[in-house]
Specification:
Arc Repressor Mutant, subunit A, Serine Threonine Protein Phosphatase 5, Tetratricopeptide repeat, 3-stranded antiparallel beta sheet
Length: 687
């Protein structure tokens, strides 16, 4: 049978059809060859390049395998082609192959043509053309190849073109006086792609032309909160102008004015250099704050939904100030989520929960009870949310992963993986860094995971720096500071500490200095400078007081000092003499208890406390607590506990125990493994 027309679909999973009949493309590598040739747009792809693209490590028969894949594809695409006859569609040319598909045979090519043509058509015709074009999409472009480097550029380009098509369709509706019809799609569009200023502008304009002035202003304020919070950027001149025009009820905003012109008028010149940068700047900021708050109260009035969404942005900004701001933000966040759920709108609740994307560096929560309530609310909202709300689902899943930090529930890693998959599929940088933060929080389940965290930190820095996501760029540097410290690469860790401090100074992020100061004390401890390290730890602990992070603060100083003594060569019994049983050991008290009992001469009690120890929590101090367990077991001659500690520490061989916290260290893991081996020979099994 000869197909009159062979068509290809890449706006979703890769498919091929002959006269409307789906063609069997066999396995994933067959589809990969076809997709790679479509990406090349009728150009020749050398066989060597196909081999590189199909395998990370090509097998010995890779070239022959590619030839087999091409042969199978030819049989599917041209089933009537006689043996040995030249293919007319998937051709051999020079060093490789090319797919000579017709210009309209690939859905992505038709989509591009339609979007380009719509730009020259009157609104009614453009609306029809864009609607037909958008219906070609069945999912993300080249869906099953999202992780392949050869598809990345084309996927990104097509995704951007699709977003522009959505916005142009909305412009056509506005131009036709059908503003209310544009609102639902634009609302979903900004929820999924909050960094697109044109989407916010069009949504606000559509709401205004639908007689919803208050909602339009609320959208613009939400745009400002989102752009500042996620990208560290103020809204551009078109958004600022539109807000001013709405407040003035400018007649030019009515349906007679085209959507492109609205909000695009002349922009007043930005202020020149500030001559009195201190007091006058503060006074000016206070005045702007007061006036804006008053305008908001007057305009929004009792609109609960708009107030909730605006409040969450404020809570998010409050959290990064540290101290009382962070503690207050936690309480306000809980109240905001409860209020959102009372509205009975899962999409609103999803936005309220997911908007709190405050970067988190410490995998032990400050308020476990609150975290449990947030996870429960996120799970309820996730169950009620329509499946097509990908971005909202991603934020809820990332929130679950973050709030379940330090637990051993499989739900935490599961949520982190799903959030990351969605973020990568949507190709949304703001979503991706949020999801990566969740992945980081779920990367402490056992010892030796510093390389994995280092890779997460590197991607955070790359994505955040490229898209202006300052707080996540800082997070990436802190993550790499920790990971490189665990790997003993202190020059690299020093560089990340300095980069984090520079960004914090420029963007007024005071909590960063808390962590870099503790890192400085860790550096002294790792260098064996015990007296100076102890003084530095005590100074750093003073700065941590009142920082609003009890999950970090409680028990950290006495734990750091105990680890310091052990890393400097003291035995468990020697180190125990410096243990203060009355100190606030916080969550680390079970690991301090054997030392406190040893220091008091109660070896039997110390042995019982040692055997009762649980596995350390899934956080950045896992290795350090294993070392404490090993030290006490070596002193008490408990072979079973020594073997347990050895098994837990073994994956971290070659690393520095506890240094992955960026705060303290118990010394090289290899030294502990050697000490365990030596002690095990003289120890007796627990009985």
């Amino acid at each position: 049978m000869a197909w009159e027309r062979v068509a290809f679909g890449v706006l979703g999973p890769v498919v091929a059809e002959g006269d409307g009949v789906a063609l069997a493309l066999k396995g994933p590598r067959h589809r990969a060859v076809l997709a790679r040739l479509i990406v090349a747009r009728r150009r020749v792809v050398p066989v060597a390049r196909l081999v590189e693209d199909l395998w990370d490590v090509p097998p010995a028969g890779a070239v022959g395998a590619v030839q087999t894949f091409v042969g199978a594809l030819r049989r599917a695409l041209e089933p009537d082609r006689p043996p040995r006859a030249r293919s007319r569609l998937l051709v051999t040319e020079g060093p490789g192959y090319a797919l000579r598909a017709a210009p309209d045979a690939v859905d992505a090519w038709r989509f591009e043509t339609a979007v380009g043509a719509a730009a020259t058509l009157p609104p009614a015709a453009a609306l029809r053309r864009l609607g037909d074009a958008l219906e070609l999409w069945r999912g993300p472009a080249y869906a099953e190849f999202e992780g392949e480097a050869w598809a990345r550029g084309e996927r990104t380009r097509l995704a951007e073109l699709r977003l522009r098509a959505v916005e142009r369709r909305a412009e056509a509706l506005l131009a036709l006086g059908r503003a209310a019809e544009a609102v639902p799609d634009l609302d979903a569009h900004v929820a999924d792609h909050p960094w697109r200023e044109d989407a916010w502008r069009l949504l606000a304009l559509a709401l205004y032309r639908s007689g919803r002035q208050g909602d339009a202003l609320a959208v613009l304020r939400r745009a400002r909160t989102t752009l500042v919070g996620q990208l560290g950027l103020d809204p551009g001149p078109r958004l600022r102008r539109l807000q001013a025009d709405i407040l003035a009820q400018d007649p030019g905003l009515e349906a007679g004015a085209g959507p492109v012109e609205a909000g695009a008028g002349p922009v007043e010149a930005e202020p020149g250099p500030v001559e009195e940068a201190g007091r006058s700047a503060a006074a000016g900021a206070a005045r702007v704050w007061s006036e804006a708050a008053a305008d908001y109260d007057r305009t929004v009035g009792g609109a609960a939904r708009a107030r909730l969404e605006a409040t969450v942005g404020l809570i998010r900004n409050l959290a990064v100030t540290g101290g009382g701001g962070l503690e207050a933000a936690r309480q306000h966040r809980s109240a905001a989520i409860a209020a959102a759920e009372e509205c009975g709108d899962p999409e609103l609740t999803a936005r309220v929960i997911g908007a709190y994307d405050v970067p988190a560096i410490w995998p032990r929560g400050d308020d476990p009870e609150l975290a449990g309530r947030i996870v429960a609310a996120a799970e309820r909202t996730l169950a009620a949310l329509p499946p097509e709300r990908g971005a909202a689902r991603c934020r809820l899943l990332a929130t679950i992963a973050l709030e379940m930090r330090g637990t051993r529930s499989p739900r935490g890693p599961e949520a982190a993986r799903e959030a990351e998959e969605i973020a990568r599929r949507l190709d949304d940088p703001a979503l991706l860094v949020f999801a990566l933060n969740g992945a980081f929080m779920q990367s402490c389940a056992r010892a030796g995971l510093a390389p994995r965290r280092d890779a997460i930190g590197a991607e955070l820095i790359a994505v955040a720096a490229r898209h202006g996501l300052v707080t996540y760029e800082v997070l990436g540097h802190l993550v790499r500071l920790q990971a490189r410290g665990a790997l003993g690469d202190f020059p690299a860790a020093d560089g990340h500490a300095a980069a984090a401090d520079r960004l914090a100074a420029r963007h007024e992020l005071p909590l960063v200095g808390v962590f870099t100061e503790w890192y400085g004390a860790l550096r002294l401890a790792a260098a064996g400078r015990a007296a100076r390290a102890e003084a530095a730890y005590r100074a750093a602990a003073g700065r941590l007081e009142g920082a609003g992070m009890p999950g970090v603060e409680r028990g950290l100083l006495p734990l750091a000092l105990l680890c310091l003594r052990l890393s400097c060569g003291e035995s468990a019994r020697e180190a125990a003499r410096g243990v203060d049983p009355g100190a606030d050991w916080g969550p680390y008290r079970p690991w301090a208890e054997p030392f406190a009992l040893l220091g008091g001469g109660d070896a039997a009690g110390a042995r019982a406390a040692l055997r009762a120890l649980p596995e350390p929590p899934a956080d950045l101090l896992y290795e350090a607590l294993c070392c404490l367990e090993a030290a006490a077991a070596a002193d008490l001659g408990d072979r079973d506990v020594l073997e347990r500690a050895r098994a837990r520490l073994l994956p971290a061989a070659g690393q520095l125990a506890g240094a992955g916290s960026g705060l303290l260290t118990a010394g090289p893991v290899d030294g502990w493994l050697a000490a365990i081996a030596a002690a095990s020979g003289a120890a007796r099994p627990a009985g």
